[in-house]
Amino acid sequence: MEQVIQSFEKAWQNFETVFKGKLLAYAGAHEVTESAANLLLKETSLDWFTGYGLQGKWLRDYKQQFPDRAGTIAAILNSELRVSQAQETEQKQQSQSATSNKKYVLPVAGAVVGLVVASAFRAPALVRVAAAAIPAVLLYPKSTGGSKASSGRANKAVIDGYVAQLQPHKRRILAEIQQ
Asked: Largest Cα–Cα distance in the chain?
């Protein structure tokens, strides 16, 4: 029985890795939503029902040894695997509030410094406006680049949250195997 559990653990780890990889690839081009994550999860779970991959071989071998329990496990893998939106929404709200405020800090600071320096030299009004506007314009792309990086971190957190939601299903399958 210990060997069956170990081989299941390997198959499950592979399953989670493939699912996370698909989510990361999808996140590179699209926003990861609950429906997209569930679609990718369903697509990944099909690997359990083919005899070619690690997951499919494990389930096929388990069916040969324990046909009655394998039906329950197949039902979990086929119809009960889902992820929910709760964590996704929470992560997005946190990242949006953090990035919306931070993206203007650097340009405004640059504009203030430029204005102060121009005022200290008693420059004409046109020069003061230029001294304030130029740093703001030049610093804005830097500040939005940082928000894109934090958005990427938020996407990774959402993806990790989706993968973590698979753990209760894993525990149910392990409980079924250990019966």
From this structure: 88
For 52-69, the pLDDT digits (tens) are 889 999 999 999 999 989
What is the pLDDT at residue 41?
95
**Domain spans of the chain, in order of start:** 2-84+162-177, 91-152
* Residues counted in the chain: 179
C-beta pairs of 18-26 under 8 Å, 24+ apart in sequence: 18/44, 18/47, 19/44, 19/162, 19/163, 19/166, 20/159, 20/160, 20/163, 23/159, 23/162, 23/163, 24/156, 24/159
Q: CA 163, CA 169: separation in Å to the nearest integer? A: 11
- This prediction has a pTM of 0.67
Distance CA 68, CA 129 (A): 78
Rounded Cα gap, residues 159 and 23, in angstroms: 7
More confident residue, 21 or 115: 21
DSSP states along 103-120: TTHHHHHHHHHHHHHHHH
